[in-house]
Design goal:
It contains 8 helices and 9 strands.
Length: about 325
């Protein structure tokens, strides 16, 4: 893989189909509420406008911010800018280098294949906003899903009021059926969103990201404990010839002209292309120690299960 195209935000290049679906759902709820539900509320029209209107505006603001913020590792941006004469960059003390981005990155960064960039504090890639969620936009993302939950709750509440007889006029059956269907759909989506809100509140309390949570669950399922300092090791399989990713390592104590060593490795974590000297040294020890056995704290992961969960968020 080469550096090539790199997404900057959720509006770069063509939109994802789930991103388009989110547009349809939000605008559809807005239309149904004011065209069908609002005329039936009579004395509840003022609180309905206030509650639904505020929740919709907050949803739009946080959605726009989550999609527009560029979560790319700032070290990667600064180093690329320094190469073209924009600013200055020092790589002292940085242990990780991404060969795909061709830049130094922070310890908590992960390369996203879908965006082709390293994201600091990577949580997950959200297809609903077509952008990665990382350290720079995570708080806004959490505010977004809470605002969406408030919007769904408001829509369902006033939708139920409009079809249970506590209205000025019942209207015809077709409109009532459409309101009922929209209310049911919003309720189902609201339950899903509530689950997502509770999950992220749990992660915040534990001080973890979605990505780290998945790695920990994988480690537990294999009866292994992955220490915090060995998180990087769990993202990379043993080095083997013919791999599809190029990992660049910092070699302590080597002459300056030999400070960078390159090896081909096979990445078994979708989207990761960053590594450290410690993990490569341990992988070499495990390889020389006999076949496919990995070193302590090293975890082989595949693309079949938990990583796919990230793409659904």
């Amino acid at each position: 893989m080469t550096a090539g195209y790199q997404r900057q935000n959720g509006f770069t290049r063509r939109p994802h189909k789930l991103q388009l679906l989110s547009y349809i759902c939000i605008l559809g709820e807005l239309g149904v509420f004011f065209a069908l539900i609002f005329p039936r509320l009579y004395r509840l029209r003022i609180p309905a406008v206030l509650l639904f209107g505020v929740s919709f505006i907050l949803t739009f603001i946080f959605w726009l911010a989550s999609a527009c913020i560029d979560p790319t590792d700032e070290s990667s941006i600064r180093e690329k800018n320094a190469r073209i004469g924009k600013g200055h960059f020092e790589d002292q003390g940085m242990r990780f280098y991404c060969d795909v981005c061709d830049t130094h990155v922070n310890d908590d960064s992960k390369h996203c294949r879908q965006c082709n960039r390293c994201v600091r504090g990577f949580d997950h890639h959200c297809k609903w906003i077509n952008n990665c969620i990382g350290a720079r936009n995570y708080k806004v993302f959490v505010a977004l899903i809470i605002a969406v939950l408030a919007m769904q709750f408001t829509f369902v509440s006033f939708g139920l009021v409009s079809i249970t007889g506590t209205v000025e006029t019942k209207g015809d059956i077709a409109i009532t059926a459409l309101i009922a269907f929209s209310t049911l759909s919003a309720g189902i989506f609201g339950i899903m969103d509530l689950n997502l809100v509770l999950f992220h509140l749990y992660l915040i309390r534990r001080g973890k990201t979605t990505y780290e949570f998945i790695l920990d669950r994988r480690a537990q399922s294999r009866n292994r404990v992955v220490p915090e300092e060995s998180r990087r090791r769990s993202e990379q399989s043993e080095a083997n010839e013919g791999g599809d990713d190029i990992i660049t390592l910092r070699v302590p104590g080597a002459p300056e002209e030999q400070q960078i060593e390159r090896r081909s490795v096979q990445s078994q974590i979708t989207g990761n292309s960053c590594d450290s000297p410690e993990s490569r040294a341990n992988a070499s020890t495990g390889r020389s120690g006999g076949g496919n056995q990995t070193s302590e704290g090293h975890l082989q992961l595949n693309r079949m299960t938990d990583v796919s969960f990230i793409s659904l968020l």
